[in-house]
Amino acid sequence: MPAGYDYVKELGCxxxxxxxxxxxxxTGEEVAVKFLPRGPKIDKNVERELxxxxxxxxxxxxxxxxxxxxxxxxxxxxxxxxxxxxFDRIAKKGRLKEGEARxxxxxxxxxxxxxxxxxxxxxxxxxxxxxxxxxxxxxxCDFGYSKSAVYHSVPDTAVGTPTYIAPEVxxxxxxxxxxxxxxxxxxxxxxxxxxxYPFQDPKAPSDIQKxxxxxxxxxxxxxxxxxxxxxxxEIIERIFVADPGERISIPELRKTPWFQENLSVAxxxxxxxxxxxxxxxxxxxxxxxxxxxxxxxxxxxGSLHPDTVPEDDDDCL
Length: 317
Description:
Layout: E1 5-13, E2 18-24, E3 30-37, H1 44-54, E4 64-69, E5 73-79, E6 84-85, H2 86-93, H3 98-117, E7 120-121, E8 130-132, E9 138-140, E10 147-148, H4 167-171, H5 177-194, H6 208-216, H7 230-239, H8 250-255, H9 257-260, H10 265-268, H11 279-292
Helix pairs in contact: 1-11, 3-5
């Protein structure tokens, strides 16, 4: 386990790494630690994700804490959101009532609005990348596809999850990441309310090609038994517009009476002071990542114990 931390449990594993819940032996704070194998997979995409995430500090974004090296892994310390994925909550309920969906949507919008104010577009917004803390506060995570206007070029590749992707991402060589994020927010709202994806073919929901065609044609229908207000439908209709220049923007969305309804103090004051990473912070992070590219190299002084990831977890990496 990491020096100074106790292992609590495994949080999950995927093709790029494993996540573990650890507890600080001194403070008792629980943190999520992602372990990525050192070597060529620590590339520019990983660097972009960590640099962008480190530059953001907001109540509705999973807090980036630090990185460290072991002999075999890069360890990324993140805020632990104990409430799990918002997607799982919806899956258990089937659908959310309009008021509850608006509560989560308001927080999502606030978090994304902050990202955009810091010139970062997420490009993979979805309910699976939306976590909840113990107080059901939304925490946006996974900035692997994000781009920053400060550090990177404009979006020009079709990335993201097919069911959430905007038409212009499919059709244009270059596109506005902010407006594409708004489209994904609309999909998230629709799923919360309807319990299904808006652009899936009801007769062939697993056919990705048909989903893509329906997105390009902005072809969707509300379920006949969906009980939502006319104002809510209008928000969704103003988001699902093929031309990103005609699509409602986040500032416009935030001014609508529907969005403003029951907007809690916690949400309305969600923006926190800007805490962009300094050039020195970025240089230090880039230096650590450069070292992480070297497989099976010595850990840096003061970093984690080399036995961070037990051998019986190797098949998860």
